[in-house]
Amino acid sequence: MKSDIEIAQEAKLIPITEVAAALDVTEDELELYGKYKAKLSDECVRRISDRPDGRLVLVTAINPTPAGEGKTTTTVGLGQALGRMGKKAVIALREPSLGPCFGIKGGAAGGGMSQVVPMEDLNLHFTGDFHAITSANNLCAALLDNHVQQGNELRIDTRNVVWKRCLDMNDRVLRNVVVGMGSKTDGFVREDHFVITVASEIMAVLCLAEDMADLKKRLGRMVVAYDLDGNPVTAKDIGAVGSMAALLKDALKPNLVQTLEHTPAIVHGGPFANIAHGCNSVRATRTALKMADIVVTEAGFGADLGAEKFFDVKCRQAGLKPDAAILVATVRALKYNGGVPVAELGAENLDALKSGISNLDKHMENLRKYGVPVIVALNVFSTDTEAETGYVREFVESRGCDFALSTVWEKGGEGGLELADKLVHVLEDGKSDFHVLYDENDTIENKIGTIATQIYGADGAEFTPAALKQMKSLEKLGFGNLPICMAKTQYSLSDDASRLGRPEGFRINVREMYVSAGAGFVVVLTGSVMTMPGLPKSPAAYRIDVDDDGRITGLF
Predict the structure, then answer these.
(1) pTM metric for this prediction
(2) 267: Cβ contacts below 8 Å, ≥ 6 apart
(3) Which of 37, 87, 94, 362 is an active site residue?
(4) Which of 37, 39, 55, 71 is catalytic?
(5) How many Cα atoms occupy the beta-carbon half-sphere of 73 within 13 Å?
(6) pLDDT tens column, 231-241
């Protein structure tokens, strides 16, 4: 079969105005970025705001493995399948980060016959949202250092500056840097840090903001440093809000594109799920719900990260009530969780499958704690045997969950009809009783403990002395009643990436925490999660090129 980028480049796209027209959006309500992508104007978002909401469906997955799971591919294929069934469906996705595109993963627009297009545009600069976020973040940093240089009226403690610069690239040497070196006019010398753009608080703020007024309030609340008395200094205090908002004006507007089968796709925002909250924007999801009968969205990485934050952070803040959850797994990934090396995953191995399916079992159990119906979608590979897929089906159904095989990578929407049919029946039954996992007014320690024990299966959490001191300080400053955003490895239910399956007898190690006051949550760092990833020995960038006709190759 052809590569993803070859399939995408040979696709026959329709003008984005036609995609919008199917959603009752006029050309005047679009801000066009060429023929095949557009932003939905503020006027459009306001006009449809009084419409009733459609049904909201979350697509999540087991913990990611080198074998691949296909969460985005399943999301896209399901949206296409619903369209084939005559349902008015919209998919709502995150925008890809350049870090993974040039790092390990390559592109992030789905795969095979279930992709969002134009694929190259989506994976690279798209409509410039990430560039705007990067610029706004670094403007805030520049204004902060300039305030110190120009007399430091706020008495900022330069040893306690918490705002970091950012770049949408995996660049490990920028994790820890020294700024202000040179002459007196070059600023005060201090240690500084970079995070990847998708870990910037501005990304989270943009994705959780309801409108421009809310965006500015959230930007103003962001803590950038502490003064010499230990009091927080905010972006509002240093006069950064208006200029940042001006840079983010267009980035706040959701982006409209299409799938290979012309299903509308709203792609907007992109916080990482292992170091941020991992969901597309509230604005995009709400807009999609006003446009469609069924909205299919996704959350990053496994359900222990993406789904937990989707429910406990995004849905809590936005008042969203999901109607169903789809949990994606593959036989290959389950066998990997059962101890099979990647090179041997193509061979039938029921013993390893029976061992590794514990990972799927835990994620099913977790999702049901939120009161939503769960459908397991088994993303089929050609090497899967009937004995293996039959075992997974029997296992899932014996635990009271619906099950469907998915072949959307190979067949597009046609390969998702079984899954779509199961979903429609679940939605018609209307059995969702969504609720969040914990009371946000509980203590920070108890909220972390609830996530650790209930979602990860840990025996509890251990806190470093630094983390305990930070927790006490955050509660004293009035941030104790915020939801928790756990930063943890995506590869395991534990904070140790090597512990596969369903680990037991472990504790989560909390090493640091800080407040993202603009986003409205406390970030808790566990293990050795990096907020600025590095490139691998052979990055995807080595395989990406452009020919003399401007045709990009090797993106995925």
Answers:
(1) 0.95
(2) 92, 93, 94, 95, 116, 122, 126, 255, 257, 280, 284
(3) 94
(4) 71
(5) 23
(6) 999 999 999 99
